[in-house]
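[09:14] KT: can someone run the structure on this one? pasting the chain below
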Amino acid sequence: MELFERPQQGDLAVLVQIKFSSRSQSSDSTSSDGIQDKQEFIELVHSAGASDVAFVIGSRQRPDSRLFVGQGKAEEIHQYTSLHNADVVIFDHSLSPAQERNLEEVLQCRVLDRTGLILDIFAQRARSHEGKLQVELAQLKHMSTRLIRGWTHLERQKGGIGLRGPGETQLETDRRLLNIRIKQINKRLEKVQNQREQGRQARKKAEIPSVSLVGYTNAGKSSLFNQITNSDVYAADQLFATLDPTLRRLDLPNQQSIILADTVGFIRDLPHDLVAAFRSTLQETIEADLLLHVIDVNDDQRDLYRYQVHSVLRAIGADKIPQIEVMNKIDLIDQAPHVVDAHDNLPMRVYVSAQTAQGLDLLKAQLSDLFADRLFEGTIRLAPTQGKLRAELYQEEAVKQETISEQGDFLLSLQIQKKHLQRILIEASLNLEELEV
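[09:31] RB: done, structure tokens below
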């Protein structure tokens, strides 16, 4: 049985977005462009499976401590809920438990804030066992502060035959049960984290570079991932289409290989509980050698979204990792693929289309160049008696050209990952300094 059940059909929702003139609150509510924020909010609601029947906007100096909005605005919202027989009122803001409870009493309707909305979307998107556990953990932490939302029976003392206890209230019992479940989930996630860590350590031991795709939600990360790795990861034109991370090996043009990770998209005001719950998933990003920051070049708000992604990267401690900005969807603006080199502390940019595969060769070439220091390109000299070593190098497809010296030695021009060459030479009890020409 699932702890969180969803309705079979979409809810009718009244949406509320308030702009605050107070600078301290503006960052928590809307960004500089209210129009784009409105569209993103609507897309979030649709991603959750709800239908918007009314959109209420307003402005205040600061949130009201009791209702978040003023009494007059609350009555206006109530009129819309009654007119459209709405199931839920969704705020594009974070509400306190008391504000949610007070609003539900006034509106006579279920109230959901931005955090609860995003949690609901994540609950629908989770496919793996780990993803479901992470979402449930975030939901439980969010719920634990909202246990008294309008349920007066939770504040009553337990009583009656078989229910008399040492004085524990129903509310205390519910909180205790939630804490027990949270501990159980944390233990399960710890096991999954250990398995992931073993995989990361194995890749480090093999010296395979890891590259993580990051970006604002719906920027096209999964589409790019599918094109460049020939995979079939679920990709759709919707927010948070990808939730569970996917890893694939990618062979680059010059005998190099990397591990490419597709991760969850970021968004404005990503709930702290979600960031904490998905820390093991985001660990692939935190420990990556390189980040491919995918940006929708066709989106007017790309600069704002770039800033939001950098904010999340700072929050998880990944802001110092080198980046390439992948300017995606050039097919929508009819632009040719090209590369803009890094300058003035700005990252390199590669213009591509994940939909048409334009520019992907350029992107792979840049990845090859960045990891070129892990590659040996040079010539070695082998004696005629070292035929076994020569055969192994051919088997690794490392020999690009071969000539024979006047002394009868083999001169092999190689291109091979340093770790592979080192392993082969160690097995032959040789070192590179003895052979390199």
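[09:33] KT: thanks! The two ends are 68 Å apart (CA to CA).
[09:34] RB: yep, looked fine to me
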